[in-house]
Amino acid sequence: xxxxxxxxxxxxxxxxxxxxxxxxxxxxxxxxxxxxxxxxxxxxxxxxxxxxxxxxxxxxxxxxxxxxxxxxxxxxxxxxxxxxxxxxxxxxxxxxxxxxxxxxxxxxxxxxxxxxxx
Amino acid sequence: xxxxxxxxxxxxxxxxxxxxxxxxxxxxxxxxxxxxxxxxxxxxxxxxxxxxxxxxxxxxxxxxxxxxxxxxxxxxxxxxxxxxxxxxxxxxxxxxxxxxxxxxxxxxxxxx
Lengths: 118, 112
Description:
The complex is a heterodimer.
Chain A: E1 4-7, E2 10-13, E3 19-25, E4 30-38, E5 44-51, E6 57-58, E7 67-73, E8 76-81, E9 90-98, E10 108-109, E11 113-117
Parallel strand pairs in A: 2-11
Antiparallel strand pairs in A: 1-3, 3-8, 4-5, 4-9, 5-6, 7-8, 9-10, 9-11
Chain B: E1 3-6, E2 11-14, E3 19-21, E4 23-26, E5 32-38, E6 45-50, E7 56-59, E8 62-65, E9 75-77, E10 86-93, E11 101-102, E12 106-111
Parallel strand pairs in B: 2-12
Antiparallel strand pairs in B: 1-4, 3-9, 5-6, 5-10, 7-8, 8-9, 10-11, 10-12
């Protein structure tokens, strides 16, 4: 089946620094990638949707200047948390949908990245 | 708006016990319903789904029935194994959207 990887799996950083999280589709071309955030004991909340080669579409309440998303190729999307603060500590999960898939087909999820901001 | 409520965990069972994880939903229209499973260190995987009322989704011994009258989609398995230990997410999707609405997830721990 389709595999999506994320790197790093966990990261600890100091407040004020920026952190980049990579999401890769390993065996298919992902025309659309999604970024989710999950707080402890909470459901996954969609942050943004990105299509290859175009700007990401952010959900209401998500700061696009703080959470920079780049989907430069059909196999890679990156999420950069800029000037991270402790409240940004969370579990970030990406997912991908391949080209040719029906719009209602399920997405393939990455294993997530645990971000801790000190 | 749409929402999914599932029972809080962790659910702790002995091997071969019967499993039920409750899930209820609120949605406009007629949603499709899903169960995803996340094994330790891995991404969410689709476990099963049902797209209309009274449909039963099943996979790997798990099953869930779309109950419109009770707006529920409870996950069941007759005999769990240690390898079933994971976090289970109930989710729904409405209309032509490809974005699921997830529940909070329920952790299942199965002891030998």
